[in-house]
Design brief:
This protein has 282 residues and is α/β, with parallel strands linked by helices. The protein contains 9 helices and 9 strands. The strands form 2 sheets. The protein has a 5-stranded parallel β-sheet, with helices on both faces. Strands 1-2-3-4 form a 4-stranded antiparallel β-sheet.
Length: 282
């Protein structure tokens, strides 16, 4: 949904639903909750958010409220452009990407917390969708309208790996519109199976996935002779250390738009006859 179609009522209702589900006992007094009902348009509503748009040119816009939940203080309500420039959707960022190794004494508790956060994210986003608030579901529908609009003859296969089904299918639709053959996997384990089956020319790999995350998938691919040289484009909203994202062939900062997606995919697939694809500044 573009900014002209978004109203203060969308923002206020999204905030109300988030707080009701994330803080069922009532939000703590210390939490800063903006008055979105008093906003007179979408721009003035967004002015009450923290702007997390990356400073590099051409970056998709991202705005957040750090609202947490009853068990975890760092979860965010997000309004951002993703895949389609000018198309804004609401999302929940669990913001729990830190690595806690199985050898740590609190590992099991951390896994339970991440599962709780993930379930809450899905519950909030489903409630938003039912209320007519734009989410990844509506973004997927907009992306599907583009499929087939720009037929090509690239004859290359891309595997899109993302545990969020609507985002995965939306991304796949935009790539198919560019002429690529596209398959989708929704977990690290499924990705490894699909890679062995279809031998893709490129893997677009989400970092934040439950269980086997993107870095674990990447490590497994690099350890296998058959996939050691398969180009991997890692996508993440998290601020990864350089040594982590440098293990991939390219790195897309979420949210990214269609032009970034097109440029990075084409750059990696043409790497043999052109310069290295650009890497965004962190």
């Amino acid at each position: 949904m573009n900014l002209a179609e978004l109203t203060p009522a969308h923002f206020a209702r999204a905030l109300e639903i988030y707080l009701r589900l994330a803080h069922p006992g009532g939000a703590p007094p210390r939490l800063r909750i903006p008055d979105l009902k008093s906003a007179h348009d979408a721009q003035s509503a967004l002015a009450r958010f923290e702007d997390e748009t990356r400073p590099a040119g051409g970056r998709a816009r991202r705005y957040v409220l750090r609202l947490g939940n009853a068990r975890y203080p760092f979860m965010k309500l997000v309004v951002h452009e993703h895949l389609l420039a000018g198309e804004f959707t609401f999302a929940v960022d669990t913001h729990d990407e830190m690595e806690v190794k199985p050898t740590y004494p609190d590992y099991d508790a951390w896994v339970r917390l991440r599962d709780f956060n993930r379930g809450l994210k899905e519950k909030i986003e489903e409630a938003w969708h039912k209320e007519g608030i734009p989410t990844a579901v509506s973004l997927k529908a907009a992306c599907l309208q583009a499929e087939g609009r720009f037929p090509g003859a690239k004859r290359r296969t891309v595997l899109v790996v993302d545990d969020q089904a609507d985002l995965a299918e939306g991304t796949a639709a935009l790539l198919r519109a560019e002429g690529y053959g596209v398959e989708v996997a929704r977990s690290g384990e499924e990705a490894l199976e699909e890679i062995g089956r279809i031998r893709p020319d490129l893997v677009l790999l989400d970092y934040e996935m439950p269980g086997m995350d993107g870095l674990k998938v990447l490590e497994e691919l690099r350890a296998r002779p058959a996939t050691r040289d398969t180009p991997v484009l890692l996508a993440s909203a998290a601020a990864l250390p350089f040594e982590e994202f440098a293990r991939a062939d390219g790195f897309l900062v979420k949210p990214f738009d269609r032009e970034d997606l097109r440029r990075f995919v084409a750059g990696l697939l043409d790497r043999g006859s052109s310069s290295e694809p650009p890497r965004p500044a962190l």
